[in-house]
Amino acid sequence: MGYLIAYSTVAVAWAAHTWWLSAAAALAGPAMYAGSCWWFPFANCWCCKGAGRHRRKDGKVLRDCRICKGTGKRLRIGRRIWNRYKKARG
Ligand SMILES: [Zn+2]
């Protein structure tokens, strides 16, 4: 009987442990994404691949990228949400 109680206590403790782990993992994913958006707010522009301008196949510049206005960088979505949140709070 003592064994059973000890075993079930361990089982419960283990289950609680794994629950905590999976909850931590579920929290850590978005948190790490949010953190990376904070530390690296800019990513290469998806439109011009970070070049800032569009080129023809022969290498001649066609025009500046309108998405990033020629900078080749764009604000990541996570950081944009953060900025909006900050603005909303004043
Ligand atoms: Zn661009």
What is the topological layout?
Blueprint: H1 2-39, E1 42-44, E2 53-55, E3 61-64, E4 73-75, H2 77-89
Antiparallel strand pairs: 1-4, 2-3
Bound molecules: zinc ion.
Describe, in plain words, how this protein is organized in 3D.
It is a single chain. The chain is an alpha+beta fold. The protein has two domains: 39 residues; 48 residues, no CATH class. It contains two helices and four strands. The chain has a two-stranded antiparallel sheet with strand order 1-4. A two-stranded antiparallel ribbon has the order 2-3. Strand 2 and strand 3 form a beta hairpin. The longest helix is centred in the first third of the chain and has 38 residues. The protein is elongated and about 80 Å long. The termini are far apart. The model has no long low-confidence stretch (mean pLDDT 85). The structure holds zinc ion. Zinc ion binds next to loops.
